[in-house]
Amino acid sequence: MTQVPAELKERRRRHDREIIALAVPAFGALVAEPLFVMADSAIVGHLGTPQLAGLGVAAALLMTAVSVFVFLAYATTAAVARRVGAGDLQAAIRQGMDGIWLALGLGIAVVAVTLPTAPWLVDVFGASETAAPHAITYLRISSLGIPAMLIVLAATGVLRGLQDTRTPLYVAVCGFAANAGLNVGLVYGADLGIAGSAWGTVIAQCGMAAAYLVVVVRGARKHGSSLRPDAAGIRASAQAGAPLLVRTLSLRAVLMIATAVAARLGDVEIAAHQIVLSLWSLMAFALDAIAIAGQAIIGRYLGAGDAAGARQACRRMVQWGVASGVVLGILVVASRPLVTPLFTGDPSVQDTLIPALLVVAVSQPIAGVVFVLDGVLMGAGDGPYLAAAMLLTLVVFAPAALLVPALGGGLTALWWAMTLMMTVRLLTLWWRARSGRWIVTGATR
Fold first, then answer.
1. CA-CA 20 to 30 A from 394: which of 93, 222, 381, 421?
2. Spatial distance between the Cα atoms of 395 and 112, rounded to a whole number of angstroms
């Protein structure tokens, strides 16, 4: 009778070690990404307000364009991890190369669209007459780095699928340091202004892509994988990523609707909303790190044909998600007196911000489970269900959010609508996880 609890404890410890080994470096790499924009903002900010405003518009456009293709990382992680679990490293890296070739093709297409339409895009985002020229300059130059950015996404997915999250962390840290140094040198040393900042970012992104390619190519040669583009493989990668693209666009629509509603509530509300959203996004990085571990671990178990191991890993990661959400919620409540004055000195914004933050704190355990189950189902290659579930969530959230100003609600009511959105995601993902239909074993789904 004492043997079963001992086995259970050992199994939990094994899962915990795997989750920590993958999630901690993944969190570091995730946090490094927004530091690129922060470094650019800090350096360009000293050039003047129009330049900083232009950077803000261009950076928002770039981040939107790149984040839409995050499926390159997610789909590649799941596909590669399955083949790793099946013991076929040659096929795993071949699958990863297909994802990288897809990323290159998509990146070239995005550049071809962005370069001629840059003035129109900047105008649509409402840049002022003084900021627009700077935004166009930054957007056109930095868009040249989009192929490299997308290659980084796909190659990151390859390494995550190979159960390696340390290399992406090292590359991200080196990339951030290079970006900061190049920006200072080109903006001030070479006196290129905002164009120097854009070129610095492009060079840093290309350097990161090159570093990833060196690692992947070395692995391909070691295991005898072909490096040539394969039309069938690239097409399969695109088909696997298409549902995740729908999921990502639906989630982006949720965030855009929330911001639009906050803007309609007034200047105080939109200012407070941006602060809450920034903190919510920061906590999402921590939870997303566990989800990334879930993608890699679940894919490997299913590829190895170990359905029982996949279920056990899923249960343990859900426990991690709940615990992480509780800790984050407590941190939000405890740090509220310090965080609020850090972001704004306006008493009216602070008064609006505090109750909305409490709603965010309450919802963090829900978010913890949502992120974990999202990662589990991605790791299982259950993209079509994730797309359908997110579309349903959007359908529920949109009218609830749009009713907030109509019914006289404020920012707190809007964040309750965001909590409703997360609750719907929780219910749909939990139902799928309990059904077991996501469990499809084998090297491919």
1. 381
2. 33
Per-residue pLDDT of the chain (445 residues; tens, 9 = 90+): 444 567 778 778 888 899 999 998 998 888 776 677 667 777 888 888 889 888 888 887 888 888 889 999 999 999 999 999 999 999 999 999 999 999 999 999 999 999 999 999 998 877 788 889 999 999 999 999 999 999 999 999 999 999 999 999 999 999 989 999 999 999 999 999 999 999 999 999 999 999 999 999 999 999 999 999 999 999 999 999 999 999 999 998 998 899 888 888 887 888 888 788 878 888 888 899 999 999 999 999 999 999 999 999 999 999 999 999 999 999 999 988 877 787 767 788 888 889 999 999 999 999 999 999 999 999 999 999 999 999 999 999 999 999 999 998 899 999 999 999 999 999 999 999 999 999 999 988 8
Report CA 166 to chain centroid distance, whole Å.
17
Q: What are 258's two structure tokens?
A: 């929330």
**How many other CB atoms are found less than 10 A from the CB of residue 109?**
12
**CA triple 55-57-63, angle to 5 deg:** 90
Packed helices 383-406 and 347-379: angle between N→C axes, nearest 10 degrees = 160
HSE, CB side, 13 Å, CA atoms: give it for residue 314: 28
User: What whole-number distance in Å separates Cα of residue 302 and Cα of residue 356?
Assistant: 40
CB 310 within 8 A of CB 439: yes
How big is the CA angle at 227 (ends 223 and 229), to the nearest 5 degrees? Answer: 140
Q: In whole angstroms, give the CA distance from residue 121 to residue 114.
A: 8
How many whole angstroms separate alpha carbon 326 and alpha carbon 338? Answer: 19
Residue 444 phi/psi, 5-degree rounding, is -130, 155
Q: Which two tokens stand for residue 173?
A: 């840290």
